[in-house]
Design goal:
Chains A, B, C, D: Its cofactor is FAD. 4 copies of one chain form a homotetramer. In chain A, 48% of the residues lie in helices and 15% in strands. The first copy, chain A, has 410 residues and is of the alpha+beta class. Chain A has a 4-stranded antiparallel beta sheet with strand order 2-3-7-6, with no helix packed on it. A 3-stranded mixed beta sheet of chain A has the order 1-4-5. In chain A, strands 8-9 form a two-stranded antiparallel sheet. In chain A, a hairpin with a 2-residue loop joins strand 2 and strand 3. Chains in contact: A-B, A-C, A-D, B-C, B-D, C-D. The interface between B and C is large, with 59 and 58 residues.
């Protein structure tokens, strides 16, 4: 049992922190302003982003998420966790280090399951940060928390697959640099329940791909990436675009979501840490009813509880990462499910306390609290709602103590 | 003890409900779209609003909030509660019936404390829905939860008051029809703590009044009304614009906030009811893991708890309204404080459950849940944060059982 | 809408309060000591109890629970609520006024469904407080939260019913004055699901009735009444002892539990009020870290939240009572279910805060907090666990918004 | 970062688990019965206890708590944590392995601060399990959460110290084998605030030591050890009985409480684990409303949340233990405070869910849930109430972000 970070990690933490302090924090509002001053918030990414990416690459702060050392930085998940946390302190930071969702998930899929040709065409530019990508899974017509509900079709016709489907919450599709989507759909409705699905690469400029609208999240548009509602109407792509093979969609999703989920959790911990810092500073600057807000008992309780909850979430995240490193993503499934339930709710509580402590400033955009809150709120739904993860955890727990009856499958 | 609504109330409930179903619900999204299609979301109010107002006035659904029968509908607070609740189901509805904050509060101030001349110039057009107004109290530089912290100056100079101050969260100031602000500031820093403040009417087109920016709430701009940051620099208004008299600002605030607070709570109950309806419908339409969402035990628990919490909040609101009617706003202070703590948190929980039950649709603008959530969240801060109300309640409770020591004043 | 208590109620409140202050509060610990000084805590009831009962009867504070004016005080449920609340402030008080469970429930059953002979033999002495009774429903072998699970047999054999069954949590059976049980069991396993059950009167001295042991509740034995595990082995009683008729057990249970449930809630509100009083007094008497506990922000928040939660629970209880009075117990089912969920949890929270505020004294028997807590805890289980009530509420709520699918029956 | 247990630990876990399964679990109820069958529950310890202790000593399962290898097993805190957890599954188990409070704390005090003579006379028999001891600190007249409130006197008079004081919650004093108390009191009221206190060894058979009564905890007497109210009236002991020296009481208390606190937390984790096991088994054995309790969504949520909360509490406990081992008890103060807040509340929630899932059986003594709950409840108060730990944590957190004002000392 050893709870210390290695020297390598501590060095990277320092570098990242310095980068954030020098470049990101002082320019977050400027980034947002530049975005708003454009004709459309979707037409262009403020140029400081590419400049930051160049700097990050030079400093070796690039693709840290990828344990695979051929393509990425070769850090373990346990090593990456405290670094990803730092990136999570700003909503615009992860992209700077090429560590942002959903591209990281897509890169992992291509590293693991992509053909050499797919890697060359799609993975390499993603790894270089030259293009962006999106992931098209959720559908408006069904409860997508149950992935077997998905209705889109991926049907082979000659040398091409034909895709028909209606998707939404395809995050990142609004980005002007976004080149392709990985689409999940059904290739064989007669196969076994978890072998009906396939994933396929669809270039966004293919005929029949239509972005209907960008969906807001609590009033935020999340430009320039955003969340798209997309229809795929008789979209034809070469059959070589299938990933891994027909019927592998569900298996890929399972593999893809593990790392993706824990990355979200790491970032949420950073967001919560930052919120706690903001709160601690602000309550020492302001007074009401004759004493510093920092001396109000209730606020002290918020601070203590926030510290306690952050610590616990961080430890659970690290344990999950450790199990992924040591035993593989599949073995770490219970821990990933746990942290996926814990981290968003923890972050929401910490952020909400900070908002309350700041008063009206907290709900505005003068501080990152409200925007981080809205983001964290989506993560109680994205990649599986809390309830699905809890049901899976209960199932696993009950199986340890099997008595007489079969437990329903989740 | 009689828990039934009078026939008068039941009739008005039906009329209001029909109005909402015929006019408001089907057009909420259109209203929002028209707003966005304008050059600026602040330049104009979609014309359907004035048309609705005309209809509402014709149907006697106008100024229902005002117990004073000379100026308003003459309903008691207890009678108004279940009607205001219905209006609260849509964020754009209260204005339709001339029952929207902060105008209602301003009208009450003018009815109670305004001179005949003030009434003629400012109250009458407000009562007619011809103009809008705003209320300028909160300041960015101090913890405004303690109203004695307020720093703006209102200083007599000859026949004029000169106002200097920096305000924000002046809600409604963005509305193109907004004509004046009621500004709170200090007229005498040497007076007793709660007699230093005055309120004064400031026409928004007076020289020295500058709207610096409109503040967002969780990404929402709340156009066309919005929340303004305003500077008042050597703003001069006739001394007749003072309300009630110098040093009366705190007393007016206390009187103003009672009804304002309970109206917010009434509307929140309506918002929660509507959210529960949306949830109940949606979970019967969707299935996951082989059964209707409506049959998932966890969701059933959300529904039951929501019903329970709404009922309790409604009863407490009605009790507070009853005490206001029977014993006056001052006597009802504890109940108003209680419901001001209860209603926003209750609504946030119910809305949050509905969001979770709807999945990603819940955080978007396809349903009113996220927007209502953001609005409810501000109400844990506006008109006094929860913590201040709780501290006052504790003080009152402790005084019932005085033992040996003095309790600190809140 | 009228939230005032009638003069009749206010007068009775005063009388009851004076009785409690004169007789009960000063002697609660003495009562407990006398009980412990006996050879067995089950052999005798401290004589002060009969003396109190005599006084209560003389003052007209007797059988207040019974709306039926032929047998009881003829108060409505709404009138009884604030009185029952006062009794709930002491765990030994309800018996003083002949208003204690499970006798009240049994008296109501006999008033409604008893034959003249049953009334003469069992109801009259109960109404006079001469004997006590118990109610035998819950069984150790099945989840009794689902009453259809009950396994005991009530089989007609000639002129007698033969009862075989294993029951526990038969409260009151330990009392030396306890004369009979109302036993629930199955008389016809082929009848429709809710017509298989019957209820029958079984004198406790009948052959085959064996009290196996008295069950503790969080270490409390609740002597002299207690909770018994009882076996009924070939117990024969005259067929006239059946109540209402064969197959009516479930219907009686439904009728019996409504008033019983709401009485529990009324008492819990009194227990919570008393706890809040104790807390408010104590925190003004003690200091830590240089200031009165009453000035610690966290404790002030406990006090405020307790007041808020008590008020809401009381209003919901009164509304439920009102609906029972005006529309009947069946119509009031949703409100009864709501308050049955709300009141125990509310009381547990308030009691727990008081315990925490008192420190170690709070968990001891120097204050009634721990004992009241343990009692309240059982009421999240007794008369239906929270989860069953919530499931019923959800079902009712979903039915208001029926969309396409059938909702599972609870 | 390494989350694995060492081989040494895994081996000891297995041995301990086997010991618990062979000896403790099957005899817990028998132990309780034997205690009750005695004339007094305080007169004697059931003989199986000494027999178990002998076996445990033979198997090397003895004094595992003591990191000091001269006197104890020499395990680090991190190694001891998962072992102590296993002992915590039964309320009577810790004594079997000589690892029970308050003896462990007293042994640590004597190891660290005792003179050779004190060690010989009091430490050696404690280490051998031949005698028991108690710790006399809390007083009924003051809020003992603030240790500076303590009023007892320890005054030098010639060669003796004279002790006068009124203590309660002196745990373990009821045990027939209890030989001495460590008493905390004031030796110099003119010294600096945290140097007024001393600790002294008082043999329980000294004249002037009177056990007034044993205090119950939620109805449990916790015999044969119990919690005593004790008066010390002109109690004279040799001056050599002072520990470390006059004025060192507060420093010793700080040192004593660190390990004591974390041991409580370790045991609570074990209690929660056991409760979760009981719940998982029971809900698979019972059905209601047509399906296994294990398939009710709400119960599945309880199970998942329990697993999640246990995991997080365990990790935080291990981290605290790790910091104690690596940097010392003082450096680990924040983590100890955190886990002291987290573990009791976590255990209370898990135990409460298990109770609810078991129905009435849960509140009885047929399962260890209610007794463990009552024990855990005291641990939100003992060794510092939650609020004091939270206030300290907030202070530490605020100091990291010092802005302008001084933060009040806790």
């Amino acid at each position: 049992m050893d709870f210390s970070y290695s020297e390598k990690v501590v060095t990277l933490q320092k570098k990242l922190t310095r980068f954030m302090e020098e470049h990101i924090y002082p320019n977050e509002q400027l980034y947002e302003e530049q975005l708003s001053q454009q004709e459309s918030r979707w037409s262009q990414v403020p140029p400081m982003m590419e400049s930051w990416k160049k700097k990050a690459k030079e400093q070796g702060l690039w693709n840290l998420f990828l344990p695979d050392s051929e393509y990425g930085a070769g850090l373990t998940n346990t090593e990456y966790a405290p670094l990803c946390e730092i990136m999570g302190r700003s909503l615009i930071a992860p992209e700077v280090f090429n560590c942002n969702a959903p591209d990281t998930g897509n890169m992992e899929v291509l590293v693991r399951y992509g053909t050499p040709e797919q890697k060359k065409q799609w993975l390499t530019p993603l790894l270089n940060g030259e293009i962006r990508s999106c992931f098209s899974m959720t559908e408006p017509q069904v409860a997508s928390s149950d992935a077997t509900n998905i209705e889109a079709d991926i049907v082979l016709d000659g040398d091409e697959y034909v895709i028909n489907g209606h998707k939404w919450w395809t995050s990142g599709a609004g980005d002007p640099r976004c080149r392709f989507a990985i689409v999940m759909g059904k290739s064989n409705r007669n196969a076994r329940k978890h072998e009906q699905q396939s994933m396929i690469i669809v270039p966004l400029d293919t005929q029949g791909v239509t972005i209907k609208r960008m969906l807001p999240v609590f009033g935020y548009d999340h430009a320039p990436h955003g969340h798209a509602e997309i229809t795929y109407t008789n979209v034809r792509v070469p059959k070589e675009n299938i990933i891994w093979g027909e019927g592998k969609g569900f298996a890929i999703a399972q593999g893809r979501l593990g790392p993706g989920r824990i990355h979200h959790c790491m970032r949420l911990i950073g967001a919560a840490e930052y919120a706690l810092e903001i709160l601690c500073k602000r309550v020492q600057e302001r007074s009401a009813f004759g004493k510093s807000l920092a001396n109000q008992g209730v606020i002290k309780e918020w601070i203590a509880d926030s510290r306690i909850e952050i610590e616990q979430a961080r430890l659970l995240t690290l344990k999950a990462a450790y199990k992924m490193d040591k035993y593989g993503n599949k073995e770490a499934k219970p821990e990933i499910a746990m942290i996926k339930v814990v981290a968003p709710s923890m972050a929401l509580r910490v952020l909400d306390r900070a908002i309350q402590g700041l008063g009206a400033a907290g709900v505005s955009d003068d501080f990152p609290l409200a925007a981080q809150w809205a983001n964290a709120r989506t993560l109680r739904l994205a990649d599986g709602p809390d309830e699905v993860h809890r049901a899976q955890l209960a199932k696993l727990e009950l199986q340890k103590h099997l008595v007489q009856t079969e437990v329903e499958t989740v």
